[in-house]
């Protein structure tokens, strides 16, 4: 539903290199079940404790695309915000996230290209033990109207 007085994200001229956004998310069963239901993804590594126990992970892991979804949602909602469009992304998943873990995401503006209305945003995610779970970069076009 679009409304005339809908919230607009930030224009490129209001963003600054080094600006950061911190997001903390807990990987709850509810969120995992919604994802699995929406995607019909039945990978036993994500949901079956007995199967996962036999793997190097030892327990079920959070689907990587769920972590990616948290990142893209942060861009759409906060930095730059509504009206933003992701042009490109590269994410390396360095370690698994497990069910019930609390994950800290940090997004930081690394580069601003006003002429092309593009920003490069670096992202990292760590667990409570400060283990790096993922790192990446996204090229984003902030809202232009």
Mean pLDDT: 93
> Which word captures the global form?
elongated
> Strand percentage, roughly?
25-35%
Which H/E pattern describes the elements? Answer: EHHHHEEEE
> In CATH, what is the homologous superfamily of the domain at 12-28 and 62-141?
Hotdog Thioesterase
Care to count the β-strands? Answer: 5
Characterize the biggest β-sheet. Answer: 5 strands, antiparallel
Secondary structure: helix percent:
10-25%
How do the strands line up in the largest sheet? 1-3-4-5-2
The assigned structural class equals: alpha+beta
Rg, alpha carbons: 17 Å
SSE topology sketch:
Layout: E1 20-26, H1 29-39, H2 44-47, H3 49-53, H4 64-77, E2 85-93, E3 102-113, E4 118-126, E5 132-141
Antiparallel strand pairs: 1-3, 2-5, 3-4, 4-5
For this entry, give a set of tags.
5 strands; alpha+beta; 23% helix; 145 residues
Would you give an account of this structure?
The model has no long low-confidence stretch (mean pLDDT 93). This protein has helices spanning 29-39, 44-47, 49-53, 64-77; strands at 20-26, 85-93, 102-113, 118-126, 132-141. 23% of the residues lie in helices and 32% in strands. The two termini are 18 Å apart. A hairpin with a 4-residue loop joins strand 3 and strand 4. It has a domain at 12-28 and 62-141: Thiol Ester Dehydrase, Chain A, CATH 3.10.129. The protein is elongated and about 55 Å long. The longest helix is centred in the middle third of the chain and has 14 residues, at 64-77. It has 145 residues and is of the alpha+beta class. It contains four helices and five strands; from the N terminus they run βααααββββ. The chain has a five-stranded antiparallel beta sheet, covered by helices on one side.
């Amino acid at each position: 539903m679009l409304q005339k007085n809908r919230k607009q994200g930030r224009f490129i001229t209001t963003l600054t290199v080094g600006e950061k956004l911190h997001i903390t998310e807990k990987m709850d069963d509810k969120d995992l079940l919604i994802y699995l239901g929406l995607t019909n993804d039945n990978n036993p590594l994500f949901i079956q404790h007995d199967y996962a126990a036999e793997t190097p992970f030892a327990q079920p892991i959070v689907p990587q695309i769920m972590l990616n979804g948290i990142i893209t949602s942060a861009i759409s909602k906060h930095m730059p915000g509504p009206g933003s469009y992701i042009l490109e992304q590269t994410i390396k998943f360095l370690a698994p996230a497990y069910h019930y873990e609390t994950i800290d995401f940090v997004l930081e503006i690394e580069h601003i290209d006003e002429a092309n209305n593009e920003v490069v945003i670096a992202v990292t995610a760590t667990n409570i033990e400060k283990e790096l779970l993922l790192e990446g970069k996204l090229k984003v076009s902030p809202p232009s109207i």
